[in-house]
Amino acid sequence: PQKPLINRAIQSRYPPGSTWKVPMAVAGLQQGAISIDKSNLVCGGGIQIGNKFTRCMGHHGTPDLRTAITKSCDGYFYRLGLKMTIKGIMDMVEEFDLNKKTGIDLPHETLNLTPSPELKAQINPRDSEWRDIDTVYSSFGQVYDIITPISSLREVAGIGVGGKLYIPHLLKELKPIGQQGNPDYRPLRSFQSLDPQRPNPKIVPIPEDQHKVVVDGMWGVVNNGGTGAGIKIAGFDIAGKTGTAQVVGLGKDVGKNKDHSWFVSYAPAYKPEISIIALIENAGFGNQHAAPAVRAIYDVYYAKTRPQPEAPKNNIALRIR
């Protein structure tokens, strides 16, 4: 209800929380910090850096990448971030254009804030040295990661289709007013055809085997006992990632300053047609609020695109004597 005239999808910025783990997973494989065959990292219930213990919400043993995505293991991604280093995370940001505006055809889009030693120096000039704990924070979508929902949607949708980052838009086509009707008219399928100067999608090279591992993990979030299991739709596999972005402190319920609730997704998981994201301010855990909101949209999409057969009519006749 506050500031209703702000277009939060493109103008407001939020810590992405665990939704940040999706591009981290892709980049970790690309950069060789982990490999498909050797992707197990310790959870440890968290990580100790100096006198600071940053905890995970669970104890996941030594999961592989698929499991770490499905179970949203913070401890895993703390260690993956340290293996990638802040340079690797910055390279990931550059690769997915997270340090740029998406270019959507709407005014006043806001630029993200993304992790770097320069950003820390700006926001904390009295303690500007970049430390391992800063890399840990940057690896799971907190402190130095503050992004718009539209940029998150573009990145996740791009991963879903194998690394094609399309420029999002609302305008589907242009037609002169009063143009004579054409019975064979079909709407243009791509904004690209309206503007030859509009660039083709940016291609992020994701090897097929690496892509499958990440999609498997996101599929498991909804379909294999993961953090979004409550929104599973039979016959329509959703790939997704929950996110809970801390506003004050981990797990604290402080009224209007409760955590932000995220869910990013695409479906069907292995042949995407649609990508949906939800961000609900100060609502709490992503699986409890944002994920069900996304499920409601998928329910409508599924019903419209995959109509169910009509139930057989009851042809029982009554004999009246």
Structure commentary:
The strands form 3 sheets. A 3-stranded antiparallel beta sheet has the order 5-6-7, sandwiched between helices. A two-stranded antiparallel ribbon has the order 1-2. A two-stranded antiparallel sheet has the order 3-4. The chain has one domain: Beta-lactamase (3-Layer(aba) Sandwich), CATH 3.40.710.10. The chain has 321 residues and is an alpha+beta fold. It contains 9 helices and 7 strands; from the N terminus they run H-H-E-E-H-H-H-H-H-E-E-H-E-E-E-H. A hairpin with a 2-residue loop joins strand 1 and strand 2. It is globular and about 70 Å long.
Strand tally = 7
Beta strand %: 5-15%
Oligomer: single chain
- The 3D shape can be described as globular
Class from secondary-structure proportions: alpha+beta
User: What is the domain total for the residues?
Assistant: 1
Order of helices and strands: HHEEHHHHHEEHEEEH
How many angstroms separate the termini? 67 Å
Kindly report the name of the CATH homologous superfamily: DD-peptidase/beta-lactamase superfamily
Question: Which topology does CATH recognise?
Answer: Beta-lactamase
CATH class: Alpha Beta
